[in-house]
TrEMBL record:
Residues 184-284 form the Oxidoreductase FAD/NAD(P)-binding domain. It holds the Pfam family NAD_binding_1. Gene3D superfamilies: Nucleotide-binding domain of ferredoxin-NADP reductase (FNR) module, Translation factors. This is Oxidoreductase FAD/NAD(P)-binding domain-containing protein. It comes from the Eukaryota. Residues 13-26 have a biased composition (Basic residues). Coiled coil: none annotated. Residues 1-12 have a biased composition (Low complexity). It comes from Tagetes erecta. GO terms for molecular function: oxidoreductase activity. The lineage of its organism: Eukaryota, Viridiplantae, Streptophyta, Embryophyta, Tracheophyta. CDD domains: FNR_like.
Amino acid sequence: MSFTTTLSTPNHLTHHHPHHTSHAPHHTQSLPMATIIHRHLAPLRHHHRLLTVAAAVRQPDTTLWTPTPLAAVKPAAESLFNVTIDVSEASDLASTYTVAGQYLQIRIPNVEKPAFLAIASPPVMAFTNGVFEFLVKSVAGSTAEVLCGLGKGDVVELSPVMGKGFNTDEISPAEKYQSVLIFATGSGISPIRSLIESGFSADKRSDVRLYYGARNLQRMAYQDRFKSWESSGVTIVPVLSQPDDSWAGETGYVQAAFARAKQLYAPDSTGAVLCGQKQMAEEVTSILVGNGVPNEKILKNF
């Protein structure tokens, strides 16, 4: 640990006292370094211990949980499941879902840790069908794995809907933002489905592309929806990182496939939507910003 790091005053101690250090007695500078460090850190250690103890004592769950029954759990692809939850008797909860890209927490009885999940169905489905739909990746030992093993009628608890979702006002009107480039990997396609099926005037734009990455076709959910997505104005570019020999489409990673594509978009009339693997999001953002697309036109849901 460097002395510079050790002696820097934490922000929360200086934020309201910009001249904090000017009040320190000058003679402290002649003290041994170890003494200064000890004096500086001792009250912080004590303060930290108090906070730790307080946090351990004061941890009631203030989340408003709504019990809801499962309507269906069905395979969507390898390791992925479509989970449908009945919210027809939970109108207060259903009404909090207003923007594609929002998410919530799901809690399962006798399972300690809740899971964060983006809602895959568009908001209108909560009213027309009385359901929230999710695309859930079953990971060994996780809450998601337990959820994917449940069935119709099993009760789970939902938190209120959270997050700002995809702010499509940033890429509207369609006449001005003619290109919308969408990127998703794995279960990150979940809120993208909500976006596409909510509608963002894709048919009024000249170039709407979805780069959708998965390991192989067996791991690619929603293939049965591709035709309707295409008819709404979205061109789908599947990208497989480990395809079999019969695959003739794009291979590798989404960001590489996009980098290989001809950059035909005009930066000042282009928007983008990203969801999925962190490295993909960072690299795609870097490519877009490097080509002149403003950062605020690159939409994320977290």
